[in-house]
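User: Could you walk me through two proteins back to back? I'd like the raw sequence and the structure tokens for each, with a short line separating them so I can tell where one ends and the next begins.

Assistant: Of course. Protein one, sequence then structure:
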Amino acid sequence: MPDHHEQGSSGGASCSDSDALNDNVKDAPNVAARRLKSYKKENQNLKEKVESLQMEMELLKKEQQMEMELLKKEHQMEMELFKKEQRDEHERMWQKFNMILQSLSGTSTTK
């Protein structure tokens, strides 16, 4: 015939297993709260990273826009300088032409 102690222990979870399960159930709200706090912190960190990247992107866009404006101004200045050089060259050529005509005919022509 089985011993009374053997019959009691073979019926399922022991007292220590039951106590551990009760402790886990009691601690579940705390675990959930810690996890929620951790998730909120991680979410906040991610939001800050996104905001930082958005600000960096805006700065890069502004920098690119400023560079484009600078390049446009440089190009415009180069074109104006080129036009001025062309006008000056044209004027010099016209003066040479006039000097040659004067030397040949003794008269002056006007533009």
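----
Protein two, same layout:
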Amino acid sequence: MAADALLSGKATYMSFMAPTFQEMVDVLLIVEGVRLPAHKAILAANSKVLAEAFTSQAPAASTAGLPELPLPEDSLEDTTRALTYLYRHCVFSTEAQSIKSQEDGKAIIRFSHKYAMQGMLDASETYLISKIQAYETTPKAVASWTALAEKYGLSKLLANCEHFFIHNTDLKLWKDMALVVDGISPASLLRNLRGLQLTRSHVQGRVQHTGVVSYNPTVSTLVAWQQGK
């Protein structure tokens, strides 16, 4: 079964391993109807949630003789990205930087938060923060990360996202961002606006006609401004 998955391209996270190790697969994760081979010991060592799933009751065996663990609420994309990081970095450390893209970081955050994989969660948060601090990303991406940080309680990532917006006074950015519909909470929006107040003296000439900075900013004010009212 592991060989079949590798040939189908669904288990590329194991492609660098010796065949013997691949043959030691002892569980199949069922995601969107796809069987993803894995090793219970590796999953359990990195996830309290999965460890409990394996010990509380034995997963039902498949026709291939391997136990199956359905993950009905997970996406195939997030799961394969997370498994790729798990096997290539947490287990074998084959690469200095195993998080290859911003999409990888977001996927790993979603998966590792759900399954209590703290090391992976911390690594992904650190990776996204590094992109913000180096300005190697886009305002649209940072807006989505703000919502992600709020949802999963990533305080360091949230602080860096808000710092990014507070110090980016490009008026076109604020007009085109549509921040509200990107899922950012009212509390975060207000922190961004009040942060802009603190930099008012430095950007007075650039913001005085926009209506963005006011002494009593509200979310409704920002929404109306974005809509050109």
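The CA atoms of residues 23 and 188 lie 49 Å apart.

Let me know if you want the two compared in more detail.
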